[in-house]
Design brief:
Layout: E1 2-10, E2 16-25, E3 30-35, H1 41-48, E4 56-61, E5 64-65, H2 74-78, E6 81-84, H3 96-107, H4 114-124, H5 140-152, E7 158-162, H6 170-185, E8 189-193, H7 197-200, E9 206-211, E10 214-216
Parallel strand pairs: 3-8, 3-9, 6-7, 7-8
Antiparallel strand pairs: 1-2, 1-4, 4-5, 9-10
């Protein structure tokens, strides 16, 4: 699904954010991306989303070299990926239903199909009864679950999450991780960037650990 081949990203200032990364994430795999703040986790995800371009090396998704995509193809590529951020960035002047429906509207899904897809996504995250609610009236955990519903409403085969539990307490964080596991069990490839090693300890998944922009052995 994802392959990095000797990827280095150096900024014009000379700083190397990532150095000679090589790894493969198989289709249907669930993996964690760990490392200290500033280790390069977010930068690695940005490379997959074409928000950054490598200085050297290749990033491939489903066998396609992302460097071969021109600007017109980038939006179509991104629409096949689900993304969850630490802050869900919900639109406060739209209901939960409208927030989750937004990606489908942008992608041009038939209007008749949108309600069914939105309600299926909200049902998956346990918020079907909140479809008419305003985001500002929801708890932090509920807001993050709306963000997850929005990320998966178009049924992507790849789901990326960047510190998705950073603003949540341990109990809510565990609920969010259980949702990611649920999506993985139906075939979605999941890569979660997190610094919370205690949270992911119960998950027997591969860890890609970054230290100063390089892959390293995870600490015990």
């Amino acid at each position: 699904m994802i392959r990095f081949e000797h990827v280095t990203l150096r900024y014009p200032s000379g700083q190397e954010a990532l150095r000679d990364l090589s790894f493969a994430l198989e289709e249907g795999e669930f993996a964690f991306l760990t490392g200290h703040s500033g280790a390069g986790k977010s930068t690695l995800l940005k490379l997959i989303l074409l928000l950054e371009r490598p200085t050297r090396g290749r990033v491939l998704v489903k066998g396609k070299d992302l460097a071969a995509l021109d600007r017109r193809q980038v939006p179509f590529f991104r629409r096949r990926v689900g993304v969850v951020f630490q802050d869900p960035h919900l639109l406060l002047d739209r209901t939960v239903f409208e927030n989750v429906a937004l990606p489908l509207e942008v992608m041009g899904f038939p209007r008749a199909d949108i309600p069914r897809r939105v309600r299926a996504a909200l049902d998956k995250v346990g918020l079907l009864d909140k479809e008419r609610a305003w985001p500002g009236h929801l708890s932090a955990g509920e807001q993050q679950r709306v963000g997850i519903a929005r990320a998966v409403v178009h049924k992507p085969r790849l789901l990326l999450a960047d510190e998705p539990t950073g603003n949540l307490d341990p109990e809510l964080s565990a609920e969010i991780m259980a949702l990611f596991r649920l999506f993985n069990e139906v075939g979605v490839t999941v890569l979660v960037a997190t610094h919370d090693v205690e949270l992911i300890a119960p998950f027997h998944c591969r860890r890609l650990h970054l230290r100063q922009g390089r892959l390293a052995e995870p600490p015990p």
